[in-house]
Every structure is written in C-alpha cells, then in structure tokens.
C-alpha cells in the first residue's frame, strides 16, 4: 500500500471534529499528500478554499481567521509547525473544540509538528492529540524503500 493510499484511507476517517496530525520526520513532506488529494476534490489555493498557514512570527491570528472562515464555508486548513507556537496551543485546542460542533461537514484541519526531542518536551495539548488521526511518515531507508517511494509517484 503506497503512502498516497494510506493518506486517503486516513482521510476517510477524518472530519470537522477530527483533524489529521502529521508528525514530521526529516526529508518527508506529508503536506504534498494533502495538496494532491485536495486538488482531486477541488480544494486549491486558486479556489480560495484551501488555506496553508506556517506558524511562527505572529501567524496565529492568520491561523485563527482561516479556521473560522473554513469552519463556516467547508474549506481545508493546513497548520504547519505548530510546535513553534507553544503558547498558542491552548487557544488552538479550545478553538478546534468549539469548531468541532457546528462546522460545515466539509471542514478539515491538517496539523503538522516535529516530534518532541524528549518525553518532557511534549507541548501538544492532550485534547488535540486525542481528537486527531496521527500520521507519522518515516522517511524510507535503503535502496528498496527509496525505489518504492519513487514508484509511489506513478499510478
């Protein structure tokens, strides 16, 4: 089963109250899968129903606005690198909880974060982790895996 298929299977389980949480590993861009699947379903930047916010440097306000709009209109939102905004994560947790109730059925949230360097270093609120579908994309190791990964790009 290829990565794209894994993503689609996981996506089927997601919903307005169930974000997809990508745990980042070096050399892997899980958001490509999100963009590709979004494109198939008509969610793109050009259609203005696909919002991608890279967190840090005051982007929290942008992220909150995107979430509010998306929840109303049934858009998709990617929140990248949420581990960079530790202080905002409590707010994000509350917001996702609020929006899980009366959101548009097509509303989806995709979150990415780097794994904590140590168990004590975990900053992602329990509520976000418990409600999300967690996806780890380990980078392929070795020739065989690299070949598979390259072949995954073809149908």
TrEMBL record:
Any single biological process term in GO: microtubule-based movement
GO cellular component: dynein complex
Organism: Myodes glareolus (Bank vole)
GO MF terms, alphabetically ordered: dynein intermediate chain binding; dynein light intermediate chain binding; minus-end-directed microtubule motor activity
Any single Pfam family the record assigns to this protein: Dynein_heavy
Domain Dynein heavy chain region D6 P-loop: 16-136
Protein name in the entry: Dynein heavy chain region D6 P-loop domain-containing protein
């Amino acid at each position: 089963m290829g990565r794209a298929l894994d993503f689609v299977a996981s996506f089927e389980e997601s919903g307005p109250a169930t974000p997809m949480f990508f745990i980042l590993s070096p050399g892997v861009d899980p958001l490509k899968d999100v963009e590709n699947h979004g494109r198939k379903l008509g969610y793109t930047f050009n259609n203005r129903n696909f919002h991608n916010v890279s967190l840090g440097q005051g982007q929290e306000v942008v992220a909150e606005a995107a979430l509010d709009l998306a929840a109303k209109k049934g858009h998709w939102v990617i929140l990248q690198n949420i581990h960079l905004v530790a202080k905002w994560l409590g707010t994000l947790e509350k917001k996702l909880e609020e929006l899980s109730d009366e959101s548009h059925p097509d509303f989806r949230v995709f979150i990415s974060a780097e794994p904590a360097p140590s168990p004590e270093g975990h900053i992602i609120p329990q509520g976000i982790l418990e409600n999300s579908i967690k996806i780890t994309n380990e980078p392929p190791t070795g020739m065989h895996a690299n070949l598979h990964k390259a072949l995954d790009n073809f149908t």
